[in-house]
Amino acid sequence: MWLLYVVIHCRLAPKQVARRYRRRFGVETSYRLAGQARAWTTSANPIYRFLLLGLGYVLVNGWLCLRWLVAQVPRRGGRLLDQTLLRLGRFRRFIVRAVEAKYGCRTEVHAHAPPLHESWIY
Fold this sequence. Notes:
The protein is mostly helical. It contains 3 helices and 2 strands. Strand 1 and strand 2 form a beta hairpin.
């Protein structure tokens, strides 16, 4: 994969720019992955939001460890990781199914009273 770096008024050589950007890429990737694993909320409580962010990081780290254990392909000269075997989306679905199996899943809601206007149903 070829990457193009746009540098305006920079006194660094292109290879130096690529090296510096590569360090930043790891940080951006971890934030993106944690964002995919984090639960969404509309709560304004910063402690609750921080808890969900931390839980997202724990899930991403668990996924990375599990993927390293189960997705290795034996070969000469080092281990190869089959990244298609356990993607983050599949791992999230595994977690949801495990929670549903443990605590059950509600598929319908029964109202205590009929709707105010029956025309809202249609």
